[in-house]
Amino acid sequence: MSSLDEAGVIDVVARGELPRPGVLLGIGDDAAVVQPPPGKLMVLATDTLNEGVHFPVGIASCDLGHRAVAVNLSDLAAMGATPAWALLSLSMPAADAEWVTGFVEGAQRLAKRHDVAIVGGDTVRGPLSVCMHVVGFVEPERFLARGNASPGDAVFVTGHPGDASAGLSLLQSGDSGNRLTDRFLRPQPRTDVGCALGGVASAAIDISDGLVTDLRRMAAASGARFVIELRDLPLSDALVDLRGADAALQHALAGGDDYELCFTVDPGREALLGGLAADWDCGITRIGHVEAGEGLVLLKDGEPMQVTSLQEWQHFPKAHS
Amino acid sequence: MSSLDEAGVIDVVARGELPRPGVLLGIGDDAAVVQPPPGKLMVLATDTLNEGVHFPVGIASCDLGHRAVAVNLSDLAAMGATPAWALLSLSMPAADAEWVTGFVEGAQRLAKRHDVAIVGGDTVRGPLSVCMHVVGFVEPERFLARGNASPGDAVFVTGHPGDASAGLSLLQSGDSGNRLTDRFLRPQPRTDVGCALGGVASAAIDISDGLVTDLRRMAAASGARFVIELRDLPLSDALVDLRGADAALQHALAGGDDYELCFTVDPGREALLGGLAADWDCGITRIGHVEAGEGLVLLKDGEPMQVTSLQEWQHFPKAHS
């Protein structure tokens, strides 16, 4: 295993650089210079992943590279934005050439799939941590916020919440290489869904912090009450088979690490949504509705369920060590 | 001392938010939505500061907040860009309310002075680290790169290189509260200089990694040789008085942490530069010239000096512990 200096790390990142129209100056100067598309709004997001907090110690570097890109693109998807450029700040105790190469491959593979150019960044010595910054664009009338849900709207979620956190628990007990661990290790940002939802959905959020936490945030930001029918949650067969129905529900509601989108749609637009959804492999499921009021109500067989007992995702108390 | 949860930290940052035209959605959603000015290029930079590597353990939180903004704005200044927006990712072992408030005050004070809005970010648990991303704008014909210097150009530097690293060494030996320590703790990004240099300078870089390292980078990127007259380096009286002339030179050449700009100017534009420089408090000094060839030559009393003995700033080997 050979060790890289700062310039060596930058070289590895730069070798994978995607030639992309609009990039006047990419990796290698004090900053990147890019040409924004005319007439669009810019959407800016950042997410940091710390070892032992946001990913387990010992994760493969290609999985970490994938994850850094995925979690950031997920934020843009929640805004309805098309991603364009990314900056990557990588903090490492030492720069092992093989590790860095794997990391960059994982990051670039997912970035390229979404036509994102990594145009710059920073390489520093320190505890293992990745901070990524992404820039996307959206037409002015199509951006999505979490605070625009209205009473009467239907609530939808993409994919199968809970799979990722069950996958993490499998990894922590030494298991690997199945559908659930893959859902934790290789989250797929819902870029296509988010971009298509602009002008269709009334509000959206990504549920990386767990469905309950993020639904509460949508409810608070929208000044409305979210009512969720637990029997409608799209639990995957793999999750229910592994954990049983009750624990599967707990994973889906409070597990976190699902980079799925939760969004609301005015009933008048549900038909339009249905037409779009036919193209989405991840699937969407109606899980509830919005009404006047505040907070989150979870209905179990029609009866409100106490949610205070759920272990919610909080960046400070919880760890992936 | 009270402790904050993630929402509490976000509240502290959001309270200091600057209302700024063009910010459609600031702190509090999955991403920020902003309106870029028409007809300009976008400049993107990121810099991470890790405790014990980029700043000493125990630094006051307001100084750290200032530093995070300063080092990022310095990158934009080196590109000739006017800063607009910033995203702040803050990693902390625990969120003490007083510490966070001080950090945000330090960051917002400098950001506001440069008309920069902190529009979003991320708060995570982990080792103390700040990752900032900044977005600026520049007219297409005015952006500066490090690789456009030509033989015949004059080489200039702003301010007094070496002061910051001497200030750091004073802090490490328990000293504080003088001009040199202030130069380390409160670097001033040369935003006005950088913006004015667009269309005047041929190339520019910020010398945060030390003059020798960054001059070599300019030379390599420009495919030319940089020749520097050591007697022309603008050593401050405070630095020479403290360290003597030889050690002062070492600080100026290889100390690092100076957020000054080094830039090159075609001789035909030196008169124009002189007119602009009258407005710059930091001052500028001509320290050498560019010629055909490669690499960096340091002249001491007209004789080339060996530079291999200089301790250069490298992120991996060196630490501020």
Can you offer a commentary on this structure?
The structure is a homodimer of 321-residue chains. Chain A is α+β, with helices and mostly antiparallel strands. The first copy, chain A, has two domains: 136 residues, 60s Ribosomal Protein L30, Chain: A, CATH 3.30.1330.10; 162 residues, PurM-like C-terminal domain (Phosphoribosyl-aminoimidazole Synthetase, Chain A, domain 2), CATH 3.90.650.10. Helix content of chain A is 33%, strand content 26%. Chain A is built from ten helices and 13 strands. The longest helix of chain A has 18 residues. Chain A is globular.
Task: Give a quick rundown of the structure.
The structure is a homodimer of 321-residue chains. The first copy, chain A, is an alpha+beta fold and 321 residues long. Chain A has 10 helices and 13 strands.
Helix/strand layout:
The structure is a homodimer of 321-residue chains.
Chain A: H1 6-15, E1 23-25, E2 32-34, E3 41-50, H2 61-78, E4 82-92, H3 97-113, E5 117-125, E6 129-138, E7 154-158, H4 163-172, H5 179-185, H6 191-197, E8 201-206, H7 211-222, E9 225-229, H8 237-243, H9 245-254, E10 261-265, H10 270-277, E11 284-291, E12 296-300, E13 303-305
Parallel strand pairs in A: 4-5, 9-12
Antiparallel strand pairs in A: 1-2, 3-6, 4-6, 7-10, 7-11, 8-10, 9-11, 12-13
Helix pairs in contact in A: 1-3, 2-3, 2-6, 4-5, 8-9
